[in-house]
Amino acid sequence: KTNLIVNYLPQNMTQEELKSLFGSIGEIESCKLVRDKITGQSLGYGFVNYVEPKDAEKAINTLNGLRLQTKTIKVSYARPSSASIRDANLYVSGLPKTMTQKELEQLFSQYGRIITSRILVDQVTGVSRGVGFIRFDKRIEAEEAIKGLNGQKPPGATEPITVKFANNPSQKTSQAILSQLYHSPSRRYPAPLAQQAQRFRFPPMTIDGMTSLAGINIPGHAGTGWCIFVYNLAPDADESILWQMFGPFGAVTNVKVIRDFNTNKCKGFGFVTMTNYDEAAMAIASLNGYRLGDRVLQVSFKTNKTHK
After folding, report:
1. What does the alpha-carbon distance between residue 296 and residue 289 come to, in Å, rounded to a whole number?
2. Name one Pfam family in it (predicted).
3. Across-strand partners of 46?
4. I want to staple 120 with a disulfide (CB 3.0 to 4.6 A). Which of 102, 124, 129, 302 is the partner?
5. Is residue 184 part of a domain?
6. Which of 25, 56, 77 is the last residue of a domain?
7. Model confidence over 258-303: pLDDT tens digits?
8. Is 221 part of a structural domain of the chain?
9. Whole-angstrom distance, CA of residue 141 vs CA of residue 135
10. Beta bridge partners of 128
11. Measured between alpha carbons, how far is 290 from 271 in angstroms, rounded to an integer?
12. Which range of residues forms the domain containing residue 106?
């Protein structure tokens, strides 16, 4: 009972600041601000481990709900990872555009203890996209919420909502990428609509003068799902970053980073296959123009896909 997790930290808060804030309560054994492995950006949460359990309890009572800049931090006991709590993150779509995060929590709280919740909003207009995420304390609670709410109409809604597991391989990172996506001022590029209609052309000087994708075989996309093209990845990009970026939007069946045969470095692009068209379109709208490290990504439907 000495280890705490601190959520909703301001993006620019450093590990030293976190340590001095919590060190004012009592002696700290260790403190870690979690950062994105690739970009180095804060993921907005961290862990503080006290020497004495009473100091951890006091920190919860004193600092939980504290306002820091525009954020209200959440301080709670960190739970050891176990099967009962893994994969308790839900993806909710079809929400009324007027629904607030608080109303979303009220709707779901009847099924169990909610750890975090989020409604995605359009970066430019600030209007809800009708999509949200709810993370429960335990997977069984998330399962009950799916049973109880999937296909139901919430109060005041005209359409039924869809509730399912957000099948992302590394939830902490994907949640973090989402928080980075939806709260970071660095994303100044309003996402253009997916260029489905026009054939996507590479800028002339890209990819070692390679002019077409001929000869590249994307396993697992034959007629299954929607293939998304991701361009301007860094040379050290790997499959995990694609899983983490696209996983929160819905079911991803396959990801592939195209590598140079000799150096095994990423050639600057990759592919993601998603089963559901709406989720794929949402991922494209959200991630096209997204700044990853020092690169701005181009994300669009892969165009030789025969549309159903």
Report:
1. 6
2. RRM_1
3. 6, 33
4. 129
5. no
6. 77
7. 998 888 899 999 999 988 888 888 888 888 888 877 788 899 888 7
8. no
9. 10
10. 121
11. 16
12. 87-168
Considering only CA atoms, which of 303, 283, 301, 299 is closest in space to residue 230?
A: 299
Six-digit token string for 57: 């309890």
In a domain, 256, yes or no: yes
Q: Are residues 159 and 109 in the same domain?
A: yes
Instruction: Name the pTM for this structure.
Output: 0.38
Whole-number Å distance between alpha carbons of 238 and 240? 6
Does residue 280 lie within any of the structural domains? yes
Tally of CB atoms within 10 A around 268 = 20
Cβ atoms of 254 and 227 closer than 8 Å: no
Closest by alpha carbon to 4, among 43, 52, 41, 40? 52
The token pair at 52 is 């004495």
- For residue 138, the cross-strand partners are none
Q: Pick out the chain residues at pLDDT < 50.
A: 168-174, 182-222, 305-308
Q: Of 77, 108, 127, which residue constitutes the final position of a domain? A: 77
Element (H, E) at 247: none
| Nearest by Cα to 117 from 129, 99, 103, 135 | 135
> Are both 47 and 103 inside the same structural domain?
no
Query: How many residues does the structure list for the chain?
Result: 308
Token pair belonging to 22: 């919590």
Sequence letter at residue 123: Q
Q: Record the tokens describing residue 191, joined without a space.
A: 């996402």
Kindly report the number of other CB atoms within 10 A of residue 307's CB atom: 8
Burial class (CB in 10 A: 0-12, 13-18, 19+), 219: exposed
| Token pair in block for residue 213 | 């994708």
- Amino acid symbol at 36: D
Q: Which positions ≥6 away from 203 have C-beta within 8 Å? A: none
Compute the distance between CA of residue 288 and CA of residue 296 in angstroms, rounded to an integer.
8
* CB neighbours of residue 88 within 10 Å: 24
Bridge partner list, 164:
91
Looking up residue 103, the CATH number of its domain turns out to be 3.30.70.330
